[in-house]
Amino acid sequence: MTVQATDHLAVEAVGLTKVYGSGNTEVQALRGVDLSLARGEVIALLGPSGAGKSTLLGIVGLVTPPTAGRITMAGKPVVVDGRFVVDVRAFRRQHMGFVFQKANLIPFLNAVENVQIALEINDESPRVAKRRALDLLNYLGVADRAEHYPAQLSGGQQQRVAVARALANLPDLILADEPTAALDSIRGRQVMELFRKVAHEQRAGVVVVTHDHRALDVFDRTLAMEDGLLTVAAR
């Protein structure tokens, strides 16, 4: 799939194939998937369990290499002929943000420290890192919880801190895997709206894997996976 846009692309994937096993045990998880995502665009990725959503997210997130295909991100080839051609750890830190079903905050760090550490890992000074972390918490509406530890935060507040952490290094691409699965409908929609805000205002491309059909109006596009193929989904 391609998106007709003049914006700089956050990611472009062409011909992604992923095969597990061989012979009688061979499973083709992805079947020549193409995906283009512009900076500033937020898309939902739907599909039943086993359709290939997590496989696609893992490959685009440079966690797992594809069997075949290529990926360009931030204008740079990162996967060529099914092989990583960059230092994936460094590239993920510099260009990508991740949000999961569980916020996965570090329990012995407070909210601002959980965001700050993502910057310090990228060699930002503690003073600058803390200032940016506080700015992000304020931007996402949880500045009043900056000194609270994860156990003192609601599920929705934890996810906002997780989004702030994902934004810390100004990523080109944010990947979110079932980020509202543990939230009620109201807080779930708030988090989905947050991804739209982040995409449109921060100029990041955002992909959200979700089973929640109640907030699909939030997204610029809705795609669906089934049997390793990617299609446009009906809303």
Structure description:
It is a single chain. α3 (111-121) runs parallel beside α5 (155-167). The protein is an alpha/beta fold and 235 residues long. It has helices spanning 53-60, 88-95, 111-121, 126-139, 155-167, 185-202, and strands at 9-20, 27-38, 42-46, 68-73, 76-80, 83-84, 96-99, 173-177, 205-209, 221-226, 229-232. Mean pLDDT is 91; it is low at 1-7. β1 (9-20) and β2 (27-38) form a beta hairpin. The longest helix is centred in the last third of the chain and has 18 residues, at 185-202. The strands form two sheets. It has a six-stranded mixed β-sheet, with helices on both faces. The chain is 31% helix and 28% strand. It has six helices and eleven strands.
Supply database-style keywords.
five-stranded antiparallel sheet; 28% strand; six-stranded mixed sheet; 235 residues; 11 strands; globular
Short description:
With 235 residues, the chain is an alpha/beta fold. It has 6 helices and 11 strands.
How many whole angstroms does the radius of gyration measure? 18 Å
Structural class assignment? alpha/beta
What are the segments in which pLDDT stays under 50 over at least 5 consecutive residues? Answer: 1-7
Strand order of the largest sheet: 7-8-9-3-10-11
Give the DSSP E fraction (strand runs of 2 or more residues): 25-35%
The helix-strand sequence is EEEHEEEHEHHHEHEEE
Give the CA-CA distance, first to last residue: 17 Å
Topology diagram in text:
Elements: E1 9-20, E2 27-38, E3 42-46, H1 53-60, E4 68-73, E5 76-80, E6 83-84, H2 88-95, E7 96-99, H3 111-121, H4 126-139, H5 155-167, E8 173-177, H6 185-202, E9 205-209, E10 221-226, E11 229-232
Parallel strand pairs: 3-9, 3-10, 7-8, 8-9
Antiparallel strand pairs: 1-2, 1-4, 4-5, 5-6, 10-11
